[in-house]
Amino acid sequence: MTTLDAAPRAVAPAESDSPLARAAAGLARSPKAVVAAIVCALLLLTALVGPALAPQNPYDLNVLDIMDAKLPPGSESMAGQTFWLGTDGQGRDMLSAMIYGLRTSLFVGVFAGVVALMVGSALGLTAAFLGGRFDTIVMRLVDLMLGFPTLLVALILLALLGQGVGKVIFALVLVQWAMFARAVRGAALVEKNKDYIEAATMLGLSRPRILFGHLLPNCLSPLIVIGTLQVANAIAAEATLSFLGIGLPITQPSLGLLIANGFQVLLSGQYWISVYPGLLLLTLVFSINIVGDRLREVLNPRLAER
Amino acid sequence: MSTPTQRLAVAAIALVTLGGPALAADLVIGTATEPSAMDPLFSRTGPNQNIAMQIFDRLVQPDVNLGMHPGLAESWTNLDPTTWRVKLRADARFHDGKPVTADDVVFSLERARNVPNSPAPFSNNVSGVTGLKALDATTLEVKTAEPTPDLMERIGFVYILERAAAEGKSLQDYNKGDGTIGSGPYRFKEWVPGDRVVLTRNDAYWGKKPEFDTVTIKFISNDAARVAALRSGAVDLIDGVPPADLPTLEKTQGLKVHTTASARLIYLALDGTRDESPFVTDLAGKPLTPNPLKDVRVRTAIARMINTPAIVDRVLNKAGVPAGQLVPEGVQGHDPALKPIAFDLEGAKKLLAEAGYKDGFGLTIHSSNDRFAGDKDIAQALGQMLSRGGIKVNGVVTQPYNVYAGAATKQTFSAFIFSLGNTTPTSGPGLRNLFMTNDPKAGTGGFNRTRYSNPAFDKALTEALSTFDEKQRLAGIQAATKLVFADMPIVPLYWQTVSWASKANIAYEANMSEDTSAALASVAK
C-alpha cells in the first residue's frame, strides 16, 4: 500500500489524464467489468429501441385480453400470437411488459440519478468553496437527509404527492442529492487549497468559472463512482416503491410492479409473472454495480493499480 | 436399525402431531382487513363488524345463509303496524357480570343514531324509530313512524352496549377497552393497531360455549403473506383466500378450505346525476358537458361492454357468480327474471352512437386495491373492456380502501368499483341504502354514492317495505328492483364466492355475510 501522500495526483486539469479516460482504460483491463458493461449497454439499447422490438404494446388496454391472462411461457394467444415468457393476470405479454418495464426503470433511474448528481454537486461545490454559514446549512441539511431511511422519505413523499413517473423521479432526487453533495464537498475541500485554484483566483476569474471550470473537473472521480452506483440504487428504489404499490400507475407496470403482481401468485404455480422481471431487474442492477465497483477501484487513488 | 434417541424423536414428533388438535385451546386468525375502531357502532363496514360481533351481541343473530334467529331478543311481536314489543332473554350477562336490560338496548339504539365522524353509520338501522321505551328489565317497546314489517332486520343488527360502561366514552376510550364491554362470546383484551386484536373467552356466555381461551386476530393485508402465514403454521385460520391459491391450498395436506357463495355484490357505480363529472372528458381530455353518463343509454352500453363471465373465469379463477341485480338466489327479494346483463359489444356501440357518442368519450376508472379479492385486477379488466367498447379509457387508478371509500362517498369519482355486502334475509335494507334518494335526515340512501334519485322507485320501495303481508312485500321489493335496474345507476358485476382456509384441526362455518369470527370456528371433531 502506498501512502496517501505518495499517491500520484492530478495537479491541474489535464486532457490526457481525465477521469473519464482513466475510467475507460481501467474498465477495459477487467474482463468481469467488460462483460458487465456490455450487458449494461445491451439493456440500454433494448430499452431505447423497445417499442420496435416488443411484440405488443402492453400499455395499450385495447390490445390486452383477459382471456389470455396467466398463460404459461410458450402459450399461444387467441389471436395466434406466441407468448414466449407467458402472460400476466391482465393478459399482457410478459416479454413486452418487461421491455417496456425496463424502459421505465432505466429512464427513472438514470434521470433521477443525473438530476440528483447535478443538484447535489452544485450544492456541494458551492458549500466547499464558500464555506461559512452556507456550508453549515447545506451540510446539516445533508446530515438530516442521510439520517432518514431513503425508502421512508420516498414513501411519505409519494403518499403525499400521488402516483406518476415525474413524482417518483422527484422523490428519488430528493433522497439522493445529499450523497452527491457530501462526496463532492469532501473532494472539493481538498482541491480548493491547491495552487491552481489560487492561481485562478489571482487571475480574477469569476466564481462560477472557478467552481465549474476548474474545481468540478478535479472532483469528477468520486462523482462518477457514486453516480453509477446511485443509478442502480434509484432503479432498485423505484422497483421497491412500485412493489409496495405507490410508485407508477398500474396500467404502466415497471419491473417492480410486474414483480409485485406476480408475487401474489408465486406460490400458486404461476412463477413466470414474477421470476422473469425479477431476473431482469437483478441482471440490470448487478451489472451496473459491477461497473460501478470497477470504476471505484480505478478512480480511487488508494485502490488504483500501478 | 434405530437408536433409542431416534425412536424417542419419532415418538415425540408423533405426540406433537397427534396432540395438536387436543391442545388447540387458542386460536390465531390472520385477517385481510383491520377495523378502524373498537367502538362497535362507529362503522358498519365489514372489518369493524368482524371484531364487534365477537365481543357484542345483537338482538338477532344471523345464520350462515342470512337467516335470522333470536339473539339477545328472545321474541318480538307486532302490537299494531307501528308498535312492537321485544322480549329480551333473561340470562344474558355483560362481561362485567351485570345483566343485559331493556335500558341498555334503548341506550344502544339511541346511540346508533349519532356517532360522531362515523364513515358508515348505523343510523339507517334506527332511522324510522320514533319511540323507545323500557317497560321492564327485559321488555322493550318500539314505536315507528311508518309501518315497518322488517323492523327487526334493521334494529336487530345494532350491537348492544352496556349503558353504565359506555355512556359518555370517547373513541379513544373504546380503543383502549374502556366501554368495550359487551355480552358476546369473547371479551376484549387489547388492540395493537396495525398488528392485532386479542380476545379472551367469556365463560358466562349464554349461547353456544366459546371454544378458545385466547383468540388473536392478526392483520395481514398482503394476500401472499397471509397464505404463507397459514402454510407456515403461524396462524390457524385465514380469511380472504385469493382465488388463485385455492387449488393448491385444497391439495395441501393438513389444510382445509371453507368456501361459500356470498351475497356481496361487486358493482361499477356510474356518476349519472351530475351535469359535469370530474373524470369524464371529451376525446381531447377536456371536461365534457353534459355528462354522457346521465344518459341511461350510455350506462346500459357500458353494462353491455363488460364481459362478466370472462372476469369471473379469468381474473377470479371462477370465484364469483355473474349478477344482474342486488342479491343472489336464496336471498329474499331476488327476482329470477332479472338475468345478468349479456355481453354485447355491437349492441353497446350502437347504443353509444344512438346517444350521440359514436366516437366515445374519455373516462377514468377508480377502484380500491385491498378491499376484496382481485379488486385492482378487475378495475384493469374493466379498462380493457370499456376501451374495446369504444370508450377512451384515460386511466385506471387504484387506492387503498381507507382512502378510497371516503373519497367515493364524497362523489370524487365518475366510474368506480364498489361492493355492498348483503347481510339481511331480504334485499330491502340493501336497496334502501344503495338506491333510495340520499337523505341523511330520513336515513335513506346512506350508501347511495351516485346520488341516484327516482321518485317512482322511492315510492315503490317505501310502499313495499311497509307492507306486512310477506308475499306482497317481496313482490313489491322485486318490482322496485326491476325499476331501479332498468335505470342502471350501477352496473352489477358479480357476487363473490368467498373462502377461508384453516389448519385441518379447525372447522369453520363459511357464511354468506363474509364474517370472520372466532365464534364461527371450532376444533374439528
TrEMBL record, chain A:
Domain annotation ABC transmembrane type-1: ranges: 102-292
Keyword entries, A-Z: Cell membrane, Membrane, Transmembrane, Transmembrane helix, Transport
Keyword Iron-sulfur: no
Location(s) in or outside the cell: Cell membrane
One Pfam family it belongs to: OppC_N
Protein's membrane topology: Multi-pass membrane protein
Entry similarity comment: Belongs to the binding-protein-dependent transport system permease family.
Protein name as it appears in the record: ABC transporter permease
From TrEMBL, chain B:
The Solute-binding protein family domain, residue ranges: 68-436
Keywords annotated in UniProt: Signal, Transport
Highest rank taxon of the organism: Bacteria
Residues of the signal peptide: 1-24
UniProt subcellular location: Periplasm
SUPFAM superfamilies xrefs: Periplasmic binding protein-like II
A family per Pfam: SBP_bac_5
Principal place of residence: periplasm
PANTHER family: OLIGOPEPTIDE-BINDING PROTEIN APPA, PERIPLASMIC BINDING COMPONENT OF ABC TRANSPORTER
Family indicated by similarity: Belongs to the bacterial solute-binding protein 5 family.
Protein's UniProt name: ABC transporter substrate-binding protein
